[in-house]
Amino acid sequence: MILEGKKRLWAEYQKEIPDDNYFYVRSCIRQNFFPASEPTFLRILRDELKKDIFETPFHTTCSGIGYHSDIVPMETTMTVVARQFALMTEAGYENYAASCITSFGLYSEIIETWKHFPEVLAKVRKHLKQATGREFEIPQSLVHASDIVFKLRNEIAAKAKFKLVNKHTGKPLKVVEHIGCHYSKMFPSKGVGGAEYPYVLVGMIEVWGGEVVDYPERRHCCGYGFRHYLVKANRGYSVANTKKKFDSMEPYKPDMIITNCPGCPYFLDRWQYVIAEMEGKTYGGDGQGIPALTYEEVAGLVLGYNPWDLGLQVHQIAVEPLLDKIGIGYDPEAKYKGPNGEDLGKPEMPMSIRCC
Amino acid sequence: MGKLYDMLVEDVRFQEGMKSCMNCGTCTAICPAAEFYRYDPRQVIDTVQTKDEEAIEDLLKSETIWYCGECMSCVTRCPRKNAVGLVIVALRSLSQKLGYFVESEKGRQQLALKRTIGAWILEHGYCVYPRKITVENHPEAGTIWKWEQDNLDLIHKRLGSNLDGEGNGGLRRIPQESLDELQRIFDVTGGSDFYNQIEEASKKKAEEMGLSLDEYVKFVYTTNNGLHGRDEE
User: Which of A164, B62, B77, B124 has the most Cβ atoms closer than 10 angstroms to its Cβ?
Assistant: First the structure.
C-alpha cells in the first residue's frame, strides 16, 4: 500500500476542527425536546476539558425551520444569520459552533452562496447595517457542536466511567448512528467523513467501546421533511420514513441509536411510540423500543453523569434497559421529580409499548 | 425564454441548483418523497428545462412542488451536481410571490406554517417555543410530552434550562432589543411583505371557499384529501 496515495485519497474527507475558543449558538429543537443536552455539552467542555466556549443571550433562532418551510425568504434568513455572525465578531471570536444541523447546513449554504454571488453578500451587509447598525466577519471556522465532541472524543474516553459495552456479555453494544441529512449531504466537505463515509458519530462510538451497526437504510432521512411534520395533515410522510429505517435496522437488534441532529432523535423516539400505538409493533426487545439518544447524552453517560441530569426521563422510549446493559446505576424514584425533589406525578403509560 | 422562467433564474438558488440535467432519474431513486408521494423530481426538472410558460405555471399551481421534504439527499447523488431541492425552494418561493400556492391543498398549508413557525420567530425569537406545542396539535409527541406540558417550568428548571428567564441559557427570554432587530430585518429584507402576501392570498382563497380565515387555518392544517400518496386512488 502506498501510504501517501492513501492519505491524499482520504484528504477530502477530513475536516479541520479548532480545539478551543468557540462561539456557541443554541438549537431551537434541542432546547425544546432535549433541554439537558446543551447544558451537558457546556459542562463537558468547560468543566471536564477546560475549553473556552462563549454564548450570548442576544442570539436568536437562525430562522432555518422557517426557511425550509418556505415562509421566510432567502434574503431575510441570510440577514438573520449575518446578525449571528455580527454577534460573534463583536465578541471577538472566529470559530462558530452551531448546536443544530439545520442551522449548520444553512450556514454552509449561505457562506457558499456568498462566495459564488458576492453581490448577494454585499446586499446582506447593507441590509444588516440598515436594520441593526451591525457589521460582521464570516467565521474562520464553522463547526457543528458534534464536530467538537468528535475532536475531543479521546479526551472524553480518558475520563470515562463507563464504556458502551454490555456488562453481562462483555460484548460491545450494537449502536445505530444517524447523522442527519443537512450535516453533509449538501456540502460533503463540511462534514467529518463527507457524505459517503460520515465519521463524526462513528468515531465517538468506536472510541467509547461500541460497535457500529451498518444496515441498508442507514443514510435514509429520519422523516422530518419540515412541512411534512409541522403540518398535522402531512405527518404520514414523516412516520412512514422513520418506519422504513426501523424496519431496516430491526434484524441487526441494535441496543441504542446515537444522533447528530436535534430533530432526528425526537422523530426516532416519538414515531416508535406512534407505530406501537397504531400497529402494536415494537422494535426493541421485550415489547420495548430502541432508545434514541443525542450525542451529548451518550457522552454524559460515558462520563458517569446521572441519567436524570442528562434528561433521559423526557424520552418516550424508556432508557432503563440500556442503562442496565451498560451497568449505570440510577434511582427509579428520582426519575420524575422536580428540581427540589417535588413530585411531578408520572406520565401516562402508552398502550402498546413498555416504558418500564 | 418565458417570463416565469426568467423570474426563476433571478433566484440564485435556482442558478445553483439547475445546471444541466440529463434526466437520468438518480434524484428520483434516492428521494424519500418520491417513495411516499406521487412525486418525481426528475419530471420537475424536465418541466422546468422546457421553459414552457404554461407548463411552469401549472407546476407553480400544483401539489407537486410541495411534496419535497428538503432533505437534499438528491444533491449528494446527482451526477451533474444539480440540486433539485434548491430548484424546489425557488419554485415554492415564486409560487407564493405570485399567489399561486393557494391553488393546491398542500400549497394552502403555507398559512398554517406562517401562523405557527413564522409567528413564533418574531414573537419569541425561536422557531419552536414549548408553550405553543400543544398536545392537541401534537398527539404524536406522546404521553411524555403531556407530562412535560403539565410540569413545563419545573422540568426545564430541573434540566438546566432558563425558560423565559433573563441572561444566557436554554429557552431564555430573548431580549426585546434582539426581537426588535429581528423585526427590522424582516421589514428591510422583504420577510414581512412575504408574510403579508401569504396572509392576503389566503384570505381571498378562504372567502372563495366560504370559510373565515381562522376556520381556513384549521382546515388547511388538518385536511388531507387522501390523493397524494403513491398508493392512494
Answer: A164
